[in-house]
Design brief:
The chain has 514 residues and is α/β, with parallel strands linked by helices. The protein has 15 helices and 26 strands. A hairpin with a 2-residue loop joins β19 and β20. α1 packs across α2. Keywords: Ligase.
Amino acid sequence: MTRSPLGPADFGLGSWPARRARISPGRTALHQDGRTLTYAALAGRVERLAGALTRLVVRAGDRVAYLGVNDITVFETLFATARCGAVFVPLNYRLSGAEIRYMLDDSGASVLVHSPDTADLVETAGRLPDGVVITTGEHGGFEAEIAAAGPPPETGVRLEDPCLLLYTSGTTGRPKAAVLTHANLTWNTVNQLAHLDVLGTDKALCIAPLFHCVGLGQITLPTLFKGGSVEPVARFDPGTILRRIGEAGITSFSAVPTMLDMLCRHESWDRTDLSSLTCVLYGGSPVAERVARAWLDRGVKLLQGYGMTEAAPGVSMATHEGTLDHPVAAGVPHFFTDVAALGPGLTPAPLGETPAELLVRGPHVFGGYWNRPEESKASFVDGWFRTGDVVKVDDDGWAHVVDRVKDMIISGGENVYPAEIEAVAVRLDDVEACAVVGVPDERWGEAGAAFVVRRPGARLDEAAFRAHLEQHLARYKIPKHVQFLETLPVNATGKIRRVELRARAAETFTNGPA
């Protein structure tokens, strides 16, 4: 008997040809708002949902989309889709109807499962012309489909078959979907477990959205693989998260840096019991050192994981032994991950202290983008994936992500990395956030433009901001232009939408000689 490599059986249940041998089926797999599903109950519901999907329209290779907040039904739909040999497509519920429409059309989804609170968004996006739409919740058709269905026929899903389409953030141009196979997800999970001590007794919060690689790959799937318990969090609220950590004895979660910052600045931070936390992972973008120190000073084992959607997502991660000395470093490569620098003539070269574009290779790295053969081909050099990230490595082997290749500013022939300037800027107590982009300049070719958000009540002016930068940076790195904003434009995962800032800079600043 064959079955999908990714399914509830792999996260707590095993199978033999003639019978099922259960590994702790009574353990809690998922918990949310008073509802608990054991691994046995989850497996049963997934089997019936897979049967319902098969009865409706779904065949091997078809796409099943999901639109909604983090919920138990996301996991049920993911595993049921995989059980059918189909491909799961989680969608960002914070997008517009037109953006959802694009992703439904691009993926060719034949089924859309959505939560009741996204009904208006679904209506705006437009119904699937030849597909099926299922609503979750008490009055939706989701439960009825599960109740009426039996298990599906066995499917011969292979490790190399596609399992998941994850759309990139789309900060520039149209988003594209990375095709992650069952093998990609499995090897990422193995990499995480080789790096971390995940236990079957762990209680993990799933805070980062499940349409994002951080939400799925860093803590959630590894915890389920080990037979631990995962609690999906529908919407991020710092006070609720801190309270839940203390109440439930939460051991781990993954987040993006903006979430960590909001948590440690919440009024209940100092009185929250964090002693149960054995590991907090973050990724998606660098974190300010003051934020990292705030967590480390509370005794929390905070680790930065560096990766990308195309690597499912892990490439490197900090270690508990080295984090105190490297609070904002990206750590060392995962066990089954090869890394190199993009050398002369587009050839792999050893990574070192000189910043260079990072190349990645390994069984967790995807094979290409959905229906984008030319872009997929251009993303690889001699079998290595071009990350687009500029990285340098210390003598002790710890990596530091310097910046994105496309974000680098070439000013007067000098390479200027915005991330370096931003890291210095947020050391200033009056600075809440900072983003630097390049703007065309007649004299220097490009010049830096800094957009700065002041902390509430701060009276920081441009002269004081520049004086701070000049204490820590070479003169050619100091941005030519500075503008204070109330907020920075960000996407759903907290990443700065630099394309908007570049457009603003081009419209606002005069590109004449200094």
